[in-house]
Amino acid sequence: TFQVHCRYIDGVGAVSAGAVLASFMDVTHLEQARQMRRDFVANVSHELRTPLTALMGFIETLRGPARDDPAARDRFLQIMADEASRMNRLVGDLLSLNRVESEERVRPTERLDLTEVLESTLATLRPLAESADVTLALTAPEAPVHLPGDADQLRQVFTNLVENAIKYGGSGGSVELRVSVAERDPAVRGAAVRVQVIDKGPGIDPIHLPRLTERFYRADSHRSRQLGGTGLGLAIVKHIVNRHRGRLRVESDLGKGAVFTVILPL
Ligand code: ADP
């Protein structure tokens, strides 16, 4: 059901078709926004309830059947710790999402060196890469790449993308960050820097690509959950890139690895 607000224009008694159409669209957008909020709350509740139910189940088992079995107790406590840290990651990502969303309209003013941001990001992720037997490489121009931005937020963008490339790219592989600068990049109609995060993993079926940055959207739900993913990483990336007036591109195909490109105006 639509609500239609008819307005008389210019006092001549004629209903403007434009006004009616605009009203239709307002109501439709409002309803879409409401539906998105309802879906989001339902998704968050579901994502929190799953580990919570597991925790409650294990507490009961520890109180009852496993009370006098030290080996079972240790195993269950380990699972409980994993479930608690899953909840902790989810709450952390929800808070990040909330923050980046509320800051999206505030233009970042800090002037930063992007190569420095990328180097510090890779240094933090090196232990994770080593434990997955993945090599990390950075190819960047010699000269520093300065741009207006929020260093912490951009670190978060590349942390999320490189973490995904390590996680999904498969062990024993390589992840490359390739930086290039263009005087006139068609994507932002001006000078820009492109950072590509390239992995040689199993890739993503193209049918998933348009929805990948939606909250809780996963191309492979089982694998994401197994690897401790919250399904919010790329949604956070998208908001931060928007705040920098940039673009995010994904190219991938099954068996062909994935390339995530962040284009930032200089
Ligand atoms: P998650 O916490 O599930 O990793 P993200 O928002 O970071 O959530 O990513 C969304 C989904 O995109 C992932 O669940 C995964 O299916 C897919 N994905 C992201 N990066 C890659 C990649 N490099 N290779 C394959 N699949 C990927």
List keywords for this structure.
266 residues; binds adenosine-5'-diphosphate; 50% helix; alpha+beta; 9 strands; globular; single chain; five-stranded mixed beta sheet; nucleotide-binding; two-stranded antiparallel ribbon; 6 helices
On the 0 to 100 scale, the average pLDDT is 90
> What's the number of extended β-strand segments?
9
Question: Whole-Å distance between the termini?
Answer: 47 Å
Helix and strand content put the structural class at alpha+beta
Strands ordered across the widest β-sheet:
4-6-7-9-8
Bound chemical compounds: adenosine-5'-diphosphate
Largest sheet: 5 strands, mixed
Helix content: 40-55%
Q: Specify Rg, calculated over alpha carbons.
A: 23 Å
| Poorly predicted runs | 1-13
Residues in β-strands, percent: 15-25%
Spell out the helices and strands N to C.
EEHHEHEEHEEHHEE
User: Quick one: overall form?
Assistant: globular
Number of helices: 6
